[in-house]
Amino acid sequence: MKLEQLAAAIDAHIDDARIEPASSAQLEITGVAGIEQAGAGELTFVANQKYAPLAQTTKASAVIVAEDFPAIPSAMLRSKNPYLSFAKAMQLFHPAYKYPAEVHPTAVVHATARIGANAHIGPYVVIDENVWIEADAVLLAHVVIYRGVTIGRNFFAHAHSVVREGCRIGNNVTIGNGVIIGGDGFGFAKDANGRWNKIPQPEPVVIGDDVEIQSNACIDRASVGATQIGRGTKIDNLVQIGHGSTVGEDSLLASQVGIAGSTEIGNRVILTGQVGVVGHCKVGDGAIVTPQSGVSGDIEAGAIVSGAPAVDHKAWLKYSAILPRLPEIWRAVRGLSKKEKD
Fold first, then answer.
1. What is the pLDDT of residues 52-84, one digit of tens each?
2. Does residue 52 fall inside a structural domain?
């Protein structure tokens, strides 16, 4: 693909500071790569200033950079959002595999199930009664859809994923390998003998449009009130979302996040790796919780918090800086105390 064609496709424009514009426009781009690995004919990008010095030495034929990035030896594609432009370039050079419209002979589809046009139903897929799946679905091997599930257009279910009874899924949703949507919530009541009695979990999981849920994540159904995932939210591997919780739109939940039941996560929230949130908390819109933090109370909109229990991130940085000096500080305090006694 010529560089000028590529620029138009990814919302960028060519800026030649050291190369003739005509020659850059006609450069042939054959692929994409990281800035340290890229070679002749390849495109790379700089979105993090940490890698800016590498732009001077990269062997890539062209580099996607910000509008104000300084001139470099390679051809430059300037973009308002270099990371997004690179993502679009990746999609051009690595388009998703197209699965043929077919139903594998080993699939088991209930007579009452309704499947839209152009569906790919893979080996050993099971679709139970009264399921409705709209057009262009792809269900790969061993996917199981329980009874009464409704699913929108362009659904993509990777192998061994499961959607439990009555759950509702919007359009353009992707679920990864081993994902369980609508497993029973963790609800038990203790009797007089100290034994745990299961609380039925009849309420479904409801997932909005444009959601992606990656491998081995689990979203539980509830006893009262649906568990809800908002439009555009992305959920990483090994995430657990407890029964009756709600996650707003365009939020990001990174790997091993755990959210206890009846928690409210707002819009555009970012929970980074291994964050834990106790039940019945509210995390406001746009909040960010840094890795391995424990949230035990409500978080205001726009806040950045860290630690366990999570506190304001700037305060946590001060605590962290002091922590290695605690033995020294303690010795000094003990010395002062001893002098006062003397």
1. 899 999 999 999 999 999 989 899 999 999 999
2. yes
Residue after which a domain boundary falls, among 58, 93, 128: 93
Q: Decide: 78 and 66 in contact? Cβ < 8 Å.
A: yes
Catalytic residue among 142, 243, 280, 313: 243
275: containing domain: 161-316
Strand order in the sheet with 31-32: 13-15, 75-79, 62-66, 42-45, 31-32
CATH number at residue 82: 3.40.1390.10
Other C-beta atoms closer than 10 Å to the C-beta of 124 total: 16
| Per-residue pLDDT tens digits for 187-227 | 999 999 999 999 999 999 999 999 999 999 999 999 999 99
What is the count of structural domains for the chain? 2
Give 170's pLDDT tier (boundaries 50, 70, 90). very high
Give every CB contact of residue 277 below 8 A, 6+ residues apart in sequence: 257, 258, 259, 260, 263, 265, 271, 283, 289, 295
* Distance separating alpha carbons of residues 264 and 246, to the nearest angstrom: 5
Q: Does residue 94 carry a catalytic annotation? A: no
Same domain membership, residue 180 and residue 39: no
What count of Cα atoms within 13 Å lies in the side-chain half-sphere of residue 294? 4
